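> tool_call: predict_assembly(chains=two)
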Amino acid sequence: MKPNPLESLDHVVRDALGQLAAIDDLADLNGAEASLIGRRSAFTSLQKSLGALAPEDRARAGAALQEARRRVEDAFEERRRVLDSGAWERRMREDRLDLGDVIAERVVWSPRAGHPGLVAITQRELEDVFVAMGFSVAEGPEVESDWYNFEALNIPPAHPARGMWDTFYVEMGEPETVVLRTHTSPTQIHLMEEALASGTLPIHSVMPGRCYRRDTPDARHLAAFHQVEGLVVDRGIAFADLAGVIETFTRAYFGDDIEARLRPAYFPFTEPSAEFEITCTICRGAGCRTCSQTGWIELGGCGMLDPAVFEAVGLDPEVWSGFAFGFGIDRCAQMRHQIADMRALTENDVRFLEQFS
Amino acid sequence: MKVSLNWLREFVDLPESLEELRDTLDDLGLVVEGITHVGEGLEDVVVARVNEIRAIPGADRIRLVVVEAGGGPLEIVCGASNFEVGDRVPLAPVGAVLPGGFAIERRSLRGVVSNGMLCSARELGLSDDHVGLMILNDVPAPTGVTLLEALQVTPDVVFDISVEGNRPDAWSIQGVARDLAARYGRALRVPLLGSPSGDRATAEVAGAGIDSPELCQRLTVSLLRGVRVGPSPTWVAQRLSAAGMRPISNVVDASNLVMLELGQPTHPYDADHVAGRTLRVRAARAGESLVTLDGVARELARAGRGLGDTGVDCVIVDGRDRVLGLAGIMGGAASEISDATSEVLLEAAAFDPMTIARSAKRHGLRSEASHRFERGVDPELALVAVARFVAVLSQSCPDLQWLPAPLDERGVMPSRPTIHLREDDVERALGTRIESSEVRRILEALNFSVLDATGTLEVTAPSARGDVREAAAGRADVIEEVARIHSYRALQRRTPTWAEPGVLSDRQRLRRRLRDTVVDLGALEVWTPTLGSDEDFDLLHPGAKRVRITNPLSAEESVMRASLIVGLLRAWSRNLERQSGDVVLAEFGTVFAHPDLAGVSRRTRGGAGGALEVDLPAENERLTVLLGRVDDDARHAVALWGVIVDRLGLADVVVRSRDALAPGLHVTRGAELVDRSSGAVLGVLGEVDPRLVESVAPKFASRRVGVLDLDLDALGDPQRATRRSSLAHVPSRYPSARMDLAFVVPGDVNAADLAHALASSDELVESVRVFDVYRNEILGAARSVAYAVSLSAPDRTLGEAEIAVVRDGLIQTATSWRASLRA
């Protein structure tokens, strides 16, 4: 009878586990990998010796060897995990910095001018024009209920007009009740409700903000974009006031040679409604590709507040009247700087960002 | 909607100038999005016969073709190969200008002169076919005649008009013509109409009924005899082509023509294939299905996913109650018109617009008919449309009979509101005075009926104007019509003024100040995505509840961000890859938290009628600055914050280090910014967790990245972010005394806390400032902190003795903080 080569197996395992426990450094552990479980380990030589066994014993012995090897490998990995996290904790401990001790004056800071975002620059210019015209600036949330985004604006559920906006719905509550606002118009409703509750009518406000539409981004559209909304609720406000405000704003922002004109349109929350167009800023009205040779480009929508909106917020249309308008901030930036592809605004390429100040 | 100018001119006399017409249409709110010139260029193109085809030596893609077009043989070089000798093809001779402005010149190719061009249908603007030349063998015209003659094309101009959602009446040639007639003050002509004939009343041979009166406003059923199905007359085919529809057969074409012309969709059935020659309208029942004309089997009456969609489908059924079609949207295959059809059952109806809209959306089925029904078809139009249908079809079916007394059932008819327009209503709304007679003229031209009661016009909307509402809303609708026809451009403008000054909101002022500060210190402002992937979210908040988009464009944009850091890191790393990333990036943006986690919920009204209460995600505006220059680290974030505190005029904010402070932050290089008097946290700063840098920007994992992440809601709240007193402090005119005190301070005592304690210990202390921190192994966790203390009194120069007393007090205070004076 031949000696059993696996007689020493228990001993090999015990020895390996003992060695592992003694290692307390990740580098040492990695160094010991070959001799413990790798090609220089006792398991490898034992594996070779199995060939000497009778075939009927070989399978059983092989299984036992595998089992032993697995125990050591598991222990090795466990040790690595312990040492790994230990090394991480040590690294973090050594890295520790009490930020309360930092003396700002000692920090080296190389002077270099930064750059505000183009949208922010444009928004500020627009706000400044409107503030100078007597408008206050208000803001609203980006996630709204369908009531504020649609129904209070005279767009009931399943109304075909809801199809005018490709809406992102938020998974919350009943289906289609929470949305990423598709326009800044819901902020109008908030403003009117607040003014009514606090007795602070009239309202003369603009409301800039980020909106979302479920549109695959292309050269002219981004899924997220910025709008500025305007709202006036006062006594005796007429369409002429709306037209005058649009015209004053257009000249103040785009320049004296740029005119505005209105043409009939449909928005559920205004009546009469209009699109407003301005003289093409590229060709100054002469006709070019950008304006399809018409000399005019479309900027936004506007109109007299619809009585249905007054009803939704509880304002008396016999006392109050008003108008609203809205247009794209990004689009203004695109026109002013002749940006062929809007996606440049979200690509955050430093070489693009550094141009604006 | 495509609108043929020739067709429009049949209804109203129009100016010649295209520009003027386009401008007028725009000004009427019928915005022209494009203009196509039909037949343009075809006057130069002639029918030519191919006499000979020769190879050109050395060229395998082009051949020399000799054609005859009435003026002797012409040699043309041609790249197409779909023709043979004897075929007749279109030739654009030298000098011709093709549609789109392409001018044909004599050219030389491979040494061979080409005297014109043989054309494909696409090159002629006749179809999209461009596999080869257009073959004219079937066209009965001699060689040499122009294509215009050969194809009997009448030159026309087609406007592509965008019709607004509140103009159901404008979805037809007649509707557009009516606006133009009203604007120009000209008469609107009525098209030729047919009249009933035959010896039997319709009711004797056909049936009709409305079982769901709330879904169907009106159902008319006519029986037409003597039908012979065949091709339409040329003018009908041309009208349809101009509108972008393909001619099919005289019956189908007549139906389409009437729809385009008057706005009334009609549906012709083969009367022999409709059981009982009866059409009824009802709501589909659960379990019913229908194979529509497009070959798709559709389950009916199943609730849709959309809000408020209960799954109502309005269907047309036959005398055995079998479903024939989806009312107003699409018919079924079984009762379709065929060549064998000799009697036609013609349905002309009006349905509830919302029902059609929901059905069409639910079944993903939009047709020319459903488009019009969704917006609201004039319920009084049905039999006028049938009369027009009969007139059109009679031209190809001389024996056509429209049996007398067509069946006419009515369901719930929409109300026709009467609006009281007071004398000054128009002027009050528009700010422009329009004479009452002009108001009246405009409204009557648009088919409104107007009664003049003293001081008030009683205006009743025509049945075609389902968009006009009652009371105040209706008044606005009517005034819009007056303004529209009168022309918005003719309205006056005035700039309103009011007493209230325009102001920025506090939040905006705060944001501007922050932006100016970080930009002045070198930051570039970026705009990163609000929507990210689950993986992005899990980088900072593994497994946490998140705000998810129900219908994202892709999985990469399906979760609302809870932090700006990942987006900023990504922008930074992309720029570094372009060697331009050694920069400071800043973003103002909103982050979102699921209401279950946010603590505070934003509860508001939502759902149909605003009857539900819905929880909205919490929103928090942040300014996050990523310090990504080559030597930047947490210290730079502290320095940046120091400047911001000053610029915002905050009283005292402690930079308080804490381990494992916030997800994404380095666990031992992070600090909270704590307002000393309110205790509120205004933000965090430190370094980005190196593991996060490694995941997002593996190529730059070895770099430290500083970060400052501010909560604008907290900074903007004076209860939380305490401002410096607005009272001016005038420094003493007497010299200050300065002393330096170095303490060994335990590791758990914040240097600024001790400074604050020292500053508060005696009213003679003017300021306390840390000017040095020193650590060594002997000190262990503690460190030596050196303070520069300045003392002053408003009314005197401090004496030695006084200073010594203060010094003792300062040391005593330090002792109470377990700090000892360094020897």
